[in-house]
UniProtKB/TrEMBL annotation:
Descriptive protein name: ATPase inhibitor, mitochondrial
Naturally occurring in which organism (per UniProt): Rhizopogon vesiculosus
Keyword DNA repair attributed: no
Family: Belongs to the ATPase inhibitor family.
Coiled coil: 51-85
A Pfam family of this chain: IATP
Main subcellular location: mitochondrion
Record lineage: Eukaryota, Fungi, Dikarya, Basidiomycota, Agaricomycotina
GO molecular function: ATPase inhibitor activity
Chain intervals with Polar residues compositional bias: 26-38
Domain of life: Eukaryota
């Protein structure tokens, strides 16, 4: 809330409008963002998102590891074939 207050400037004899900001201490305006319950709920949602994201990354990494293991087994078989022919 911005309020206009007419005051006399101390250094000059002219009257000036001085704008001052008056913030309300009431929790009625914008209280949702400041309330304790909201921040706990928001943190819970963020934590849940982080857990899901990390679980998804782990699934992808495990799939990549399995693919690399399969590739390594095929290469090992080829290597064994080449060495057995020599």
């Amino acid at each position: 809330m911005i309020t206009a207050i007419a005051r006399r400037a101390p250094a000059a004899s002219l009257t000036r409008l001085v704008f001052s900001r008056g913030y309300t201490s009431s929790l009625k305006e914008g209280s949702v963002a400041q309330s304790q319950g909201f921040s706990k709920k928001e943190k819970a949602h963020e934590d849940e998102y982080a857990r899901r994201h990390e679980a998804d990354l782990l699934r992808k990494l495990k799939a990549e590891i399995e693919a690399k293991k399969d590739e390594l087994a095929k290469l090992q078989e080829k290597h064994d074939e080449v060495n057995s022919k020599q």
